[in-house]
Amino acid sequence: MFKKVAFVGSTGCGKTTLINSLSAIEPLNTDVASTEDIGKPNTTVAIDYGQVQLNEHLTLALYGVPGQKRFSFLWDYVGDGLTALVAMVKHNDTQSLQDLGEFLQHFGLHGDAPESMACAIAVTHCNGSIDAAFQDALDDMQQTMKLALPVHRLAEGDAQQGLDLLRSLIILE
Amino acid sequence: MEHNNEQDAQGTTPLPQQSRTDAPQSATGQAPLPQPSRSEHAESAPAPAAPADDSDDNVKAEIKALFQELEHKFTDLKMMSVTSADGLPIYTKVYTEYNVDKEKISALSSSLSALSKVAAKRLIGAPLVRTNIETDGGNMFLISTAYESKPCVLCLVTGPKQNLGHARYFANQLAVQLKENNRSDEEE
Q1: Please, are residues A9 and A88 in contact by the beta-carbon 8 Å criterion?
Q2: Which of A124, A144, B32, B154 gives A14 a disulfide partner, CB atoms 3.0 to 4.6 angstroms apart?
Q3: Does B150 touch chain A if contact means CB atoms closer than 8 Å?
Q4: How does pLDDT run along chain A (173 residues), one tens digit per residue?
Q5: Strand blocks (E) in chain A
Q6: Which helix (H) or strand (E) holds B10?
Q7: What is the distance between the alpha carbons of residues A134 and B81, in angstroms, rounded to a whole number?
Q8: pLDDT tens profile B72-102
Q9: A32 Cβ under 8 Å from any chain B Cβ
Q10: How far off is chain A from B52, nearest CA to CA, in Å?
């Protein structure tokens, strides 16, 4: 059985790296050179795609989408038929946190919406534990949005942490 | 990367340079197509009362000039744009009453071009030349090229009256000229 999981979050939060590390097949990437200063040379302009087999009965199709709002038509495309969503945010990055709220809203994840899919927040670019101030900001955002999503710390490109996160999402689903 | 983009812009078979009055060889291999005059173009694609030039203040004059040089050769042209490879608008010109959000067309051009490149490489094993989207209401042509030595995507949208091979030929020619225009600028 195939289930569809999407990775969303601001530019540079590690979506492509995570999908590349998780995928059991050669991942499909659509990176091009960035003309904006985004802290890295390349950026995804269409989708990242990979697959990972969780067990003999279940394969997850992994979709990553660009973080820039101008590509929101791809968010809609990927959002159709989702089993789970991994909403990624860069540690101690105010803009990334604001983007996270917009992504959750876009995918219909707020307290007033009917429960549609499993979702977890993944904090990336974090050496050690999540700073208390950032955790508070995350908690405030979740409270405002009437959400209680699990928050995971995720090292960039750590396939094992990524797999653990995916397994937890499938259990939640 | 630069080399590949050059291949993309020029296609697998280099197109001959031609003057405005040259009759093109159809990209479909058919007999040369008649050239529409400016008045024919005006009849088939009437311009709105206000100019539909959607350029920014920092409009690239070279692109504008190239567009102006070729636009009269299309019988049913709706839109031409040049977009950075990562989906930011560089220059957009909208003809007729065609309603388009230039930010959206730029992002779409970038996404479609990137996906097409992956599909061409993975499924055909050859570099992408061009992406064509054909509908009953018109066609869209996307060609990877370069502007100021940076990879970009040329996008043309034509209406249903436009001959497909004709449009494809001039779209290719425009992509080549866009890239060669950079080269001549650099040489100067």
Answers
A1: yes
A2: A124
A3: yes
A4: 899 999 999 999 999 999 999 999 999 999 999 998 888 999 999 999 999 999 989 999 999 999 999 999 999 999 989 999 999 999 999 999 999 999 999 999 887 777 779 999 999 999 889 999 999 999 999 999 999 999 999 998 899 999 999 999 988 66
A5: 2-9, 31-33, 42-44, 48-55, 58-64, 84-90, 118-124, 151-153
A6: helix B2-10
A7: 42
A8: 999 999 999 999 999 999 999 998 777 788 8
A9: yes
A10: 22
A43 shares contact with chain B (CB less than 8 Å): yes
The residue type found at A97 is L
d(CA A56, CA B117): 33
- In the 8-state DSSP scheme, what is residue A27? P
| CB-nearest partner of A33 from B85, B118, B122 | B85
| Token code pair at residue A5 | 């999981």
Residue A53: beta bridge partners? A59
Chain A hits for B8, Cβ within 8 Å: none
